[in-house]
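Handout, section 3.2

Students often ask what a structure token actually looks like in practice. Rather than define it abstractly, here is a full record for HMP/thiamine permease protein YkoE. The first block is the sequence as you would receive it.
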Amino acid sequence: MSASTSPSIEKDAAAGRRPAASGRFRWRVVDIVVAAVLGVALGLVFWGWNTVGYAWFLAMDALTPGLGGLAAGIWLLGGVVGGLIIRKPGAAFLVEVIAAVVSMLIGNVWGVSTLFSGMVQGLGAELILLAFLYLRFTLPVAMLAGAGAGAAAWVFEFFYGSSPNILKTLEFNLIYLGSLLVSGAILAGLVGWLLVRALAATGALSRFAAGRELRRDV
């Protein structure tokens, strides 16, 4: 890991070439610090959403079993936001896990399963970014990453817990999967993309490609 830009990367940038993969994927100190800050901040968001989101989850599930998944997208934000800002392998996973740990340590009703959920959801977003070789960070990719995190959450809950969803009806599982995909795409993907754009507009992301891209667009 390096806190500075290597000479080869500087030469590539000066020549207008894309940096070599080894340099592009190397974690800097600023990447680690920002991942930690994002994880803690989003962990506080998760903790706040534990009350509002869970109430919404129960209300929607009472209306139609499985629709509760529509409330889950906010809990998937870490992977999307971390991946869009840091753009390094493992960033989506790391930020989502840190956020889950913070939410768990502050206190919630799910305990250690929060950590397991965060790991799986972060991996779901990570796999989508990997599919694009960490080269594309557009709104559609962000929404796919959110949906990927939702799909991973569905798989996890299908098998895990005292009453896993594998024991429930096919209808419930299909509705729940669809709800998680929609919620992940919108509440994690779209909202996450807008959040990154808003942060970039403040200049807070000037050391990241996400911040430089916004300046070019403007």
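Discussion prompt for tutorial groups: The first helix runs from residue 7 to 14. How would you have guessed this from the sequence alone?
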